[in-house]
Amino acid sequence: MEEPTYDASSPFPSLEILYKYKLHNTTDKSILGLKVTFPPSAATPPHTHHGASVAVTVLSGSVLNKMNDDPMTVKKVGDSFYEAPGCRHRISNNASDKEEATILAVFVLETEKMDALIEQQGPMGLVLVDEEYQEAVIARMKQAA
């Protein structure tokens, strides 16, 4: 399968925080569960997660996944993957143009940083879009508002 390039006209996934807890076995970190629902043909631009550790499980459908310079993979229901701090998520797309796909992304990040990002931008604050795509993403978000 050929790797897609990001298309700014693709639908965005919806983001829903399912839970957030302070971790008591560390002095400064929290864990957050984020449900990401990709409509058909949805895609996210290349991005990172502000130094968070992120573990992902596919709950429904299938997604295209490429991190750093690794080969793109197709992740199906029950599959999981890990994004280490600083990992660049180059491709994060719904693999289908007909069916929805849903993932659960579990973030571990410094509590103060997580709280500030969410307070400023809601759950989208956890996604740091690569600079070359930021203008297109901001324009799309303004249209949707």
Question: How helix-rich are the residues, as a percent range?
Answer: 10-25%
Structural class: alpha+beta
Looking at how many chains there are and whether they match, the oligomeric state comes to: single chain
Largest sheet data: 5 strands, antiparallel
What is the string of helix and strand elements?
Answer: EEEEEEEEEEHEH
Strand order of the largest sheet: 1-2-10-5-8
- Could you say which overall geometry the principal axes of the C-alpha atoms support? globular
Individual helix count: 2
Overall strand count: 11
Q: Roughly how many Å apart are the termini?
A: 34 Å
| Share of β-strand residues | 35-45%
Rg from Cα: 15 Å
Overall residue-averaged pLDDT value: 94
Low-confidence stretches: none
Descriptive notes:
The chain is of the alpha+beta class. Helix content is 17%, strand content 43%. A five-stranded antiparallel β-sheet has the order 1-2-10-5-8. A four-stranded antiparallel β-sheet has the order 3-9-6-7, with no helix packed on it. A two-stranded antiparallel sheet has the order 4-11. Strand 6 and strand 7 form a beta hairpin. The longest helix has 14 residues. It is globular, with a radius of gyration of 15 Å. The protein starts with 13 loop residues before the first strand and ends with a helix. The model has no long low-confidence stretch (mean pLDDT 94).
